[in-house]
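Morning. Coffee machine broken again, so started the prediction first thing and wrote up yesterday's gels while waiting. Chain of 91 residues, entered below exactly as on the submission form.
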Amino acid sequence: MHKPFNPFKILRAPISTEKTVRMINEENKLAFYVDLKATKSEIKRAVEEAFEVRVMSVRTMITPTGRKKAYVKLSPEFKASDVASKLGIIG
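Came back before lunch.
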């Protein structure tokens, strides 16, 4: 039997730095710390289900401290700033 999908098992925490706030405003991207084993397609699904948006692309990297970051570009009809304000990243 298969477990229900929980987006917050994949999305650990939003990242809010000056750089990510600029990406939200200029590039329509959000940044999250994600589960180390999560694939790009799982990250895409988690963001889409958690925030009811459409994702165009996902870029990931592993930080020198061993955490995995995901940069998620939303499709143009959705505003990263709307999601970011729901998350409390920007006011």
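Helices lie at 7-10, 18-27, 40-51, 80-87. Going to sketch it on the whiteboard this afternoon.
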